[in-house]
Amino acid sequence: MLRIAIQKSGRLSDDSLNLIRECGISFVNSSLKLMTECTNFPLEILFLRDDDIPGYVADGVADIGIVGQNVLVEEGKQELTVEALGFSKCRLSLAVPKSTNYTSVQDLDGKNIATSYPNLLQAFLDEKGVQANIHTISGSVEIAPGIGLAEAICDIVSSGSTLISNGLKEVERVFKSEAVLIASPQLTAEKRQILEKLLFRIHAVQRARRAKYILLNSPNDKIDEISRLLPSMKAPTVLPLAEEGWSSLHSVVNEDDFWEIIEKIKDAGAQGILVVPIEKMIV
Ligand code: ATP
Ligand code: MG
Prior knowledge:
This protein is of the alpha/beta class. The chain is built from eight helices and 15 strands. The protein folds into three domains: about 1-90 and about 180-210, Periplasmic binding protein-like II (D-Maltodextrin-Binding Protein, domain 2, 3-Layer(aba) Sandwich); about 90-175, 3-Layer(aba) Sandwich (D-Maltodextrin-Binding Protein, domain 2); about 210-275, Alpha-Beta Plaits, CATH 3.30.70.120. The protein has helices at about 15-20, 55-60, 70-75, 120-130, 160-165, 190-210, 225-230, 260-265; strands spanning about 1-5, 35, 45-50, 65-70, 80-85, 90-95, 110-115, 135, 150-155, 170-175, 180-185, 210-220, 235-240, 245-255, 270-275. The site of magnesium ion (MG) has 3 residues, from loops.
């Protein structure tokens, strides 16, 4: 049995639980329980505060975990990283009141900065050669300038709307973060094997998220040209249509290249293009 630690309730929770579900792993999720055992995979889920996850995994209380890089690196445990998961993307930024005339990071020299991430901030300031007084507070960092605690803050930003509603402006990006899977360095061979199985499924889910299944009709004399424009896992599938002179082409395209490809194949004569999501993808 492998034990995974995920955030009990917060910005990582839904995406972490969804990833486990999309891997085809079932469990009963009761918000009252601290732990739940999966029914069809040797996995036990432990629900924790996100700040506690790196420590639990480092100590081997949990075997693996899902946590933000911001918390992991702040706690000096980045060596536990297995791989980035692509969700909960955000950044740690410095912000000052809107009215502040800010020109460069040197302006922060000698100033008071409130943050929940003193280590990440200190590393950034050291790199820039700036000396400031860091005030570590555990929450509601954005109100610090308003109550006279600090001239600047360093906090997590995604859209920036929290900053704006508190009369602040983002001036420096300190750290870029996303959710990562972490693992204890001392897993037994048996647990390592379960982790490999889980990773295999996670990769299939991640690949499928980026890929789309595409079906289109092509005049037979355009099949070669259109096939060359279509990326695919091996080569596109070509099936005859009931209508003489036409075929149906099936393939897989990457979300990122999607619009560009659609335009090109339309110009080449493709018709009736259908694009559908893929649930799992094994290469
Ligand atoms: P806990 O009660 O578990 O300690 P928390 O309040 O410390 O929770 P959350 O606000 O739920 O933490 O954020 C958890 C993680 O989600 C952050 O450490 C960060 O990696 C990421 N995150 C935070 N804010 C955002 C955001 N606005 N958009 C995307 N990801 C975010
Ligand atoms: Mg926390």
